[in-house]
Automatic annotation (TrEMBL):
Homodimer. Residues 100-107 form the Nitric oxide synthase (NOS) domain. This is Nitric oxide synthase oxygenase. It comes from Nocardioides bizhenqiangii. Catalyzes the production of nitric oxide.
Length: 411
């Protein structure tokens, strides 16, 4: 599976970096603390979801009594508790509805960890590290989601600040250059202000600590244990000097600041992963000029003529970086997919969805891979665009915390 940046599968990062959805958590009333959960669950959304669940799952018994019970529960508590089956179905359909994800063919295989009773920062962090190990699965990556305590009127849900469970620090140097991932330069310096101590000898691939915020504890930092971090050192099948550049990437992309919404219930802490599509790393994380910006360096080492754009030195270097990524994951035994294979699978997914009588929302600008677009079949058509729920939503405040390192959700 694959998305473009935050949601399910950033095949590329959102080109504009603009959240697609409204922030469903923020309240117009400035007196209320942002993120506090004094919002009743929308009854119509709850009912619509229960209908969908019962339409696609005949086993769980009659719909009417379940809707009545949920309405009573909302009357009394302002929210309701999904059954384990509703939760698992809702999470899978949230993936199925994620318009940015090219990797949705396997949506039914998502493993759902029901961790709704877990809500203190230390336990959330520990379960996230467990998620990293279980999802890595010795290299045979399993699509997985861990669903922590939901938002509720009696207690706001925990928040994970990081965009993904594993991200690399970006250290601003005195000359303005950044060592590491420039995307996280502000996040990194804010965490240092909050007391994080980077390694004695900082490198371009230092894993940032996890920040978990709860209403009782405020933001707390947790170092990701080494056994939870699996990485792939990058080498090239022919260019022997490539390995000497010391590049690597983490094996599992676990998006951790996206808001899962099922039947009107919000789950702000619900980290989920698929496996990588090579271009996410090779074309975007390593290729973007505001990320690791590897293209000029690789072109130089390849001896290409960089004095004239028309030599297409950028394109040539980009292809070799992407070959290195796919090759290295393969020889390391870590699941990865290429953009040609994944594009064909996505068309298979669309056919299946159509046969099932469903509409499949898709965003062309996210689905088309960030290199060789016209060589992939997903380029040559249009898609349905309307949003559907359940889904993973971009929450503006969460997006801000992931890049700016604050402000906290609860103050
Ligand atoms: N594009 C993001 C990254 O490079 C990952 C987004 C999720 N990708 C995925 N294949 N599930 O880290």
């Amino acid at each position: 599976m694959t998305t473009q940046h935050h949601e399910c599968c950033p095949a590329h990062t959102d080109p504009t970096d603009q959240p697609v959805t409204q922030n469903r958590l923020s309240q117009p009333d400035p007196e209320r603390s942002p993120g506090s959960a004094d919002i009743e669950v929308d009854r119509a959304e709850a009912e619509e979801f229960l209908e969908l669940f019962h339409a696609e799952n005949p086993q769980p018994g009659p719909l009417g009594p379940r809707i009545a019970a949920v309405m009573r529960e909302i009357d009394m508590t302002g929210t309701y508790w999904h059954t384990a089956e509703e939760l698992a179905f809702g999470a899978r359909v949230a993936w199925r509805n994620n318009a940015r994800c090219i990797g949705r063919l396997y949506w039914q295989s998502l493993q759902v960890r029901d961790l709704r009773t877990v809500s203190d920062a230390g336990s959330v962090a520990a379960r996230c590290f467990e998620h990293l190990r279980e999802a890595h699965n010795g290299g045979k990556i399993r699509p997985m989601i861990s669903v922590f305590a939901p938002e509720s009127p009696s207690r706001p849900a925990p928040r994970i600040w990081n965009e993904q469970l594993i991200r690399y620090a970006g250290y601003e140097q005195p000359d303005g250059d950044v060592l590491g991932d420039p995307r996280y330069r502000t996040f990194t310096s804010k965490l240092i202000q909050r007391g994080w101590r980077p390694p004695e000898f900082p490198s371009a691939f230092d894993v940032l600590p996890l920040v978990v915020e709860t209403v009782e504890e405020g933001p707390r930092l947790f170092q990701v244990p080494g056994q939870a971090v699996h990485e792939v050192p990058l080498e090239h099948p022919e260019l022997t000097w490539f390995a000497g550049m010391g590049m690597r990437w983490h094996a599992v992309p676990v998006i951790s600041n996206s808001l899962l919404v099922i039947g009107g219930v919000s789950y702000p802490a619900a980290p989920f992963n698929g496996w990588y599509m090579g271009t996410e790393i090779g074309a975007r994380n390593l290729g973007d000029s505001d990320r690791y910006d590897l293209v000029p360096e690789v072109a130089k080492r390849m001896g290409l003529d960089t004095s004239d754009e028309a030599t297409l030195w950028r394109d040539q270097a980009l292809v070799e970086i992407n070959r290195a990524v796919l090759h290295s994951f393969r020889v390391t035994g870590v699941t990865i997919t290429d953009h040609h294979t994944e594009s064909r699978r996505f068309l298979t997914h669309l056919e299946r969805e159509e046969r099932a009588g469903r509409r499949c929302p898709a965003d062309w600008s996210w689905i088309v891979p960030p290199m060789s677009g016209s060589q992939t079949p997903v380029f040559h058509r249009y898609y349905e665009a309307e949003n559907q729920v359940p889904n993973f939503l971009a929450d503006n405040e969460a997006a801000g915390r992931a890049l700016q390192g604050g402000p906290p959700a609860f103050r």
